[in-house]
Design a protein that fits this description.
Elements (H helix, E strand, L loop, with lengths): L19 E10 L2 E5 L2 E6 L2 E8 L10 H13 L7 H15 L5 E15 L6 E16 L5 E16 L1 H15 L5 H10 L6 E12 L7 H11 L2 E2 L6 H12 L5 H15 L8 E9 L6 E9 H7 L4
Antiparallel strand pairs: 1-4, 2-3, 4-5, 5-6, 6-7, 7-8, 7-9, 8-10, 10-11
């Protein structure tokens, strides 16, 4: 029985001839299996958003083409070894422009939980930690039909931060009390031997790094850079010696929310200084306060060239 054809209402003229920046679908979940040489595959359940622009002459997009494109690109990626989630996004935006002939811009984002294995610091209990990976891609089509693609990859990680200013005030108060019955030299030895209290925050660090279509960044590197930027990583399974180690180490390394962002900048420059100077970087840190109702926030948006120049690497 032949399939009945219906008119494309989307191709009609809109009542108001106004172009739209992004039209598409959000919240499309797909199972992605990323094959790796001599390693177990990575299983992800990313959520995709996929958009194209809409000219003022077009009433609507052919919406079904977006989830269709996502399914096609996912199926094609199964046989590719070492494909990255940002590559899937890059392939997807190109496919979107192929399917939406009236569009000149396509954009997609994929976010997914990403499990890493680690060990607690003292008892070495094996634990699985949840992080998040982020991938984006933008495709532009010029007047000649040539398509250029920008892709971005990132990670978001939870860690622990300790407030430096509160710790300094606690140390100063303790010093004054010690000097009431100890001499200066002994007091200084005590101050150097003990760890002083401060209020803590749950820190959420994010790095989003732009790379060219033929370049890749290891998301595990980004996760490590974010973890190292805070006072201490966190761990899901901790016995008492592990708790003591994490709390002690964190209080020996107090950082402001601003310090976390700057530490991530330094980590990126050390690991990926070979990226082109025009690669854009977005770094964010949110510290969820324990003694305030508000949170602390810091951000840096710059090109790799600007970061190198600020850090005197050129």
């Amino acid at each position: 029985m032949p399939v009945q054809e219906f008119p494309d209402t989307q191709d009609k003229q809109p009542n108001a001839p106004i172009s739209l920046t992004r039209v598409g679908v959000t919240g499309v979940k797909k199972l992605v299996k990323i094959q790796r040489d001599n390693k177990r595959p990575i299983i992800l359940l990313p959520t995709f958003d996929a958009f194209v622009d809409l000219p003022s002459t077009q009433k609507g997009v052919h919406m079904s083409r977006n989830p269709e494109a996502i399914s096609e690109v996912i199926d094609e990626s199964v046989s590719d070894m070492e494909i990255h989630i940002e590559d899937i996004c890059a392939n997807l935006v190109k496919r979107l422009l192929e399917k939406h002939e009236y569009a000149v811009r396509a954009e997609t984002e994929a976010t997914s939980e990403y499990i890493i294995n680690k060990f607690s610091p003292v008892t070495h209990k094996k634990t699985q930690e949840t992080t998040h990976i982020i991938a984006r891609a933008i495709a532009m089509k010029d007047d000649s039909g040539n398509i250029s693609v920008r892709k971005m990859v990132g990670a978001q990680v939870v860690g622990m931060t300790v407030c430096p200013c509160a710790q300094e005030s606690v140390e100063q108060e303790s010093k004054e009390k010690l000097l009431e019955f100890l001499d200066e030299e002994t007091t200084q030895k005590v101050l150097e031997a003990v760890t002083f209290a401060s209020h803590n925050q749950r820190g959420i660090g994010t790095i989003l790094l732009e790379v060219s279509e033929n370049q890749n960044v290891n998301v595990d590197d980004l996760i490590t850079i974010i973890q190292n930027s805070m006072s201490s990583p966190v761990c899901e399974i901790l016995k008492r010696p592990d708790e003591n180690k994490i709390v002690t180490n964190a209080h020996k390394n107090p950082v402001f929310v601003e310090d976390c962002v700057r530490n991530m900048v330094l980590g990126l420059l050390e690991k990926y200084s070979d990226l082109p100077d025009n690669s854009m970087v977005t770094i964010k840190q949110v510290n969820e306060e324990s003694i305030h109702q508000h949170n602390a926030y810091a951000e840096k948006v710059a090109s790799m060239g600007e970061l190198k120049q600020e850090n005197n690497m050129e």
